[in-house]
Amino acid sequence: MEIQSFNPPVRTLMGPGPSDVHPRVLAAMSRPTIGHLDPAFVAMMDELKVLLQEVFRTGNPLTLPVSGPGSVGMETCFVNLVEPGDKVIVCRNGVFGGRMKENVERCGGQAVMVEDAWGEPVDPEKLEAALKANPDARLVAFVQAETSTGVESDARALAELAHRHDCLVIVDAVTALGGSPVLVDEWGLDAVYAGTQKCLSCTPGLAPVTFGERAVEAIRLRRTPVQSWFMDLNLVMGYWGGGKRAYHHTAPVNALYALHEALLMVREEGVANAWARHRHNHEALRAGLEAMGIGMLVRPEARLPQLNAVLVPDGVDEAAVRARLLERFNLELGAGLGELAGKVWRIGLMGYASRPENVYTCLTALESVLGEMGAHITRGAAVAAADAAYREA
């Protein structure tokens, strides 16, 4: 078999991630590689921490990008904060709450589940009932932005409940960070993890995390060693902390260049402006879809602007639609997961992908393919509806 250099097709990525990467970020990755302990690289690491603090809206000193995807960020939070025998209340309203449960159990903890329907936000009343029934719980874990359903839960309210019952919180903000408010200090979030491949317009492979004072103290007072050597923050901070840097692992140098550039772009735009951009493009997409006759899974007040769970019209083969969109328009949409498989498309408007030309591309391509397949939609109205939404914004 002859193998040549790989040249990927040019796609428009409007699924659940990765999202389109900004050309500035791709260019940053191509800069010369230097050593991970080079003084110039260490200086850039310090800037990265500042830029991450800005987007997380926190002054937490323990804020850094973990070398690995968002799942490694998740594990970093759990392995450092959960010890054998700990009781952890886990809120599950989609796929990623289930992954939290598995992390708790792999750490030797006991997961107490608070269940909500897929497409519904976490119910604070159910969490409060679980906290009252489990006064020995140490932690509460929940997903702020559930990527599998496009629903956003009230992180501030859930954190306040947890703290009222002397629990720390672990928050999944993988799809939230950079696309909708994540106010770590204002909301009192103790440990938060995210990913670079969604609303930050960066490549996959890094996981921003931040830990507040209460979480750092809990890690310092652990009774048992952290079960993961690689993710033990006591060791990682020897590399990412101030002063003389101790070798821990060979950092992904060029990927960190990319994240630095991506975060610099968020600073230039203004993080609040980035939130507004995601909201404006969401409203235009929603208006176009509804004009076409296509509905949304999540009720309006709980929808994520950056991840839209769109109901597949009756009688439509959703996988065939996605395949045709990819083949004819180089447009990638996401499938439903778990109990939503075959029932929804997940349309991402994240980071660099959150721009009007992508909204118009998606509406036009989807209308074309659905029309060809005989779906019961209204043709010719979507673009005008999106135009009207942009004018009103």
TrEMBL record:
- The signal peptide here is none
Q: Which residues bind substrate?
A: R346
Q: Does the keyword Transmembrane helix apply?
A: no
The molecular function GO annotations come to:
alanine-glyoxylate transaminase activity; L-serine-pyruvate transaminase activity
Alphabetically sorted, this entry's keywords are: Aminotransferase, Pyridoxal phosphate, Transferase
Residues forming the Aminotransferase class V domain are: 33-336
Tell me the Gene Ontology biological-process terms attached to this UniProt entry.
glycine biosynthetic process, by transamination of glyoxylate
Q: Which Pfam families match?
A: Aminotran_5
Q: Which cofactor does it need?
A: pyridoxal 5'-phosphate
Residues carrying N6-(pyridoxal phosphate)lysine: K198
Q: Which superkingdom?
A: Bacteria
The UniProt entry, under InterPro entries, shows:
Aminotrans_V_dom, Aminotrans_V_PyrdxlP_BS, PyrdxlP-dep_Trfase, PyrdxlP-dep_Trfase_major, PyrdxlP-dep_Trfase_small, SP_NH2Trfase/AEP_transaminase
Is Transferase found in the keyword set?
yes
> What SUPFAM superfamilies does its record include?
PLP-dependent transferases (SSF53383)
Regarding protein family, the annotation reads: Belongs to the class-V pyridoxal-phosphate-dependent aminotransferase family.
State the protein's name. Answer: Alanine-glyoxylate aminotransferase
| Organism from which the protein derives | Thioalbus denitrificans
